[in-house]
Every structure is written in C-alpha cells, then in structure tokens.
Amino acid sequence: MGFLSILLLGVGLSLDTFAVSLSLGFAAERTTRTQKIRFLAVIGLFHFFMILGGWLLGENVSRLIAAYDHWIAFGLLAFLGVRMIRSGCTGSENDEIDCDLLSWRNTLMFGVALSIDALISGFSLGLVKVALIDSNQLINILLAATIIGLTASGLSTAGILLGKKVSSRLGPKAEIFGGVILILIGLKVLIDHLF
Q1: Residue 48 to residue 43: CA distance in whole angstroms
Q2: Which of 156, 163, 136 is nearest to 10 (CA)?
Q3: Stretch 4-12: mean pLDDT, rounded?
Q4: CA-CA distance, 159 to 170, in Å (whole number)?
Q5: Which CATH architecture has domain 3-194?
Q6: What DSSP state is assigned to residue 58?
Q7: How buried is 87 (Cβ within 10 angstroms: 0-12 exposed, 13-18 middle, 19+ buried)?
Q8: pTM here?
Q9: DSSP code per residue over 63-107
Q10: pLDDT one-digit tens code per residue, 126-171
Q11: How confident is the model at residue 98 (pLDDT cuts 50, 70, 90)?
Q12: What residue spans define the domains of the chain?
C-alpha cells in the first residue's frame, strides 16, 4: 500500500468527520477558537491512535469491536445531535447547553464516535504491506497513521470553516440543521452496518 492508497483511506475514514465538522461550523458562534482547535487535535489524534491500535491489537479485538462499533457511533452522534437541536431551539446564549457543545467530554465523545472505523482499518493495514518509505513495517504504519490523522484534522477544519460560512446564510437556526445532520450520520452508520 503506497501513499495514494493511504491518503484515499484517510479521506474515506474522514467523510463522516467532515460532515460532523460542517454541523459544528453551523454552531461556530457558540464555541470558542480554543474548543475548535482542541476538537481538531482530538480528531487527528484519535484517528492516529485508532489506526495504530487496530494494527497492534489484531483481528480478534477488531472483530469484537466491529460487532458493536455502529451502535456506539450511532448513540454518541444521536446524543450530541439532540443536544445541538435543543440548543438551537432555545436560542439562549447563556444556556449551559450552548456553552458545552465542544466541552472536553463532548469532544472526546466525538473523537470516539468518528474514529471507530479507523480501528478496524488499522487491523486491515496489518494484513497488507504498507510501503511508504524503505523501512520496517512499524515505521510505515506510524507514517500511515500520521497521514490519516492529518487528513481527518484537515477535512474537519474545512468542514468547520464551510459550516460557519453556510450558517451565516441559514440564520440562527443553523444549529438545528447541524443537529439533524449528526443524527442522520449516526443513522447512516447504523444502517450501513446492519444491512
């Protein structure tokens, strides 16, 4: 597996992340710059460590997680989506819901929900020869995980910026739209794995 294949894998693993980041961009006025940077770092790090963890843990653990990963992702995304919708409906800037959209807890929940597929992909990288540079497999896996993590952070950045631009056109209820998108992404993950 070469650079282009790893990059395409990173993009594929980051499409849901991009859509969620787009939703977060709709609520950009209710999050701080520090929270957004923290979110982007967590997304990149989770993708990196999930790829590496999947490669290290191997087939048995990956199969166990694969049996439940879609339920975990759905539950977390639905929970956060409902919070966004509730927050958009209240419209109160002093509401606690508004202030903690990207709290540490929620950011970590996003990290888990959006990177579970990377764990399974990490296992699959153990089945093929990753040849990014002329070195041992561990170094190549670390480079692959870095590329995938940076891709996830980069697409998330683009999603937040695009969501912020779109939200100015959608008005104050853009956060409701973002919450609906989160729930729909969760449903898509669930349906894709069940059928």
Answers
A1: 9
A2: 156
A3: 91
A4: 16
A5: Up-down Bundle (1.20)
A6: -
A7: buried
A8: 0.80
A9: HHHHTTHHHHHHHHHHHHHHHHHHHHHH--TT-HHHHTTT-HHHH
A10: 778 888 999 998 999 999 999 999 999 999 999 999 998 887 777 6
A11: very low
A12: 3-194
